[in-house]
Amino acid sequence: MAKTWLVTGGAGFIGSNFVRQSLALLDVQIINLDKLTYAGNLESLDDVMGDPNHVFVRGSIEDRVLIAELLNKYRPTAVINLAAESHVDRSIDGPADFVQTNIVGTFELLEAVRAYYINLQDHERESFRFLHVSTDEVFGSLGSEGYFTEESRYAPNSPYSASKAASDHLVRAYHHTYGLPAVTTNCSNNYGPYQFPEKLIPLMILNALEGKELPVYGDGRNIRDWLYVEDHCRAIWLVLSHGKPGQVYNIGGNNEKSNLEVVHTVCDILDQLQPRGDGLSYREQIRFVTDRPGHDFRYAIDAGKIRRELGWVPRENFESGLVKTVQWYLNNRQWCDRVLDGSYRRERLGLSVK
User: Fold this and answer.
1) Is 137 a residue of the active site?
2) 41-to-117, 132, 189, 332 alpha-carbon distances in Å
3) Per residue in 105-132, pLDDT tens?
4) Per CATH, the architecture of 3-191+228-255+294-316 is what?
5) Which of 34, 137, 198, 302 is catalytic?
6) Catalytic residue among 34, 85, 136, 316
């Protein structure tokens, strides 16, 4: 008999990839709850909307009554929380949405799940899991050396990372206080198909193809660890099936790159796959712009724990994953046009510091 999972945020970037991969490769029924904000799009789920094992429900994790109804109707064996406001620049312009969704929403979700969990039969409680997907940004900024581990001190520096840190602490508290079998994952920067074009890599791809400037913050030396989204989905499966309740698992791609290196690599791949008509490189379109306020210098994940305990390692290196990503955007320009519905036109965000 197929397992049933309640996935929140399943129409977003990571969520839609997770839903699609799970349905294709696992024997699972997915109840997909998504609010369908600007970054959550049914366009990203076109190929699974007719799947009998996929039930889509439009709604928010802030709606405790709705979540309780879904839990009691479908009786899931796991809840995977991917619902979040996730863009740092937007959190600078409007932090209230991040507090509401990431903190209040996580609280409402936890309360609904706690009520469901305590009424499960003993054998059901033993197998039930609540998996909370978070970010390495909760740890703050690294210097030129060292790595974030599961024991790293939280030091968030943006409204986004602060809201995610708060949600992480709530999940931890519900495990220790109420015995909820919760697990948290903290991942590095994801990239891949179906990512909303406000994020660095798809923004650079689309701007390059349209002959627009490629804005690089500051001097471009800020460093991130990059994780191909399908590798991240595989890691979530392993944590769900073999992770220990109360534990935290860092998921990183072991691909540290400066922002300028990322943009250069995107340009070089485009030069090969779809050259400019004038024979010049897309690198000619790079422009350095005013840095983001409070821009963390470096993130780097030590993923040794999930490798040692669960046997996970990423399958893609940065170059192989990025070639797949660029090719996907070249092949799916219509998806990009449809998700850019007028509310976002790739303008600069995150400058309104007052």
Assistant:
1) yes
2) 30, 21, 20, 14
3) 999 999 999 999 999 999 999 999 999 9
4) 3-Layer(aba) Sandwich (3.40)
5) 137
6) 136
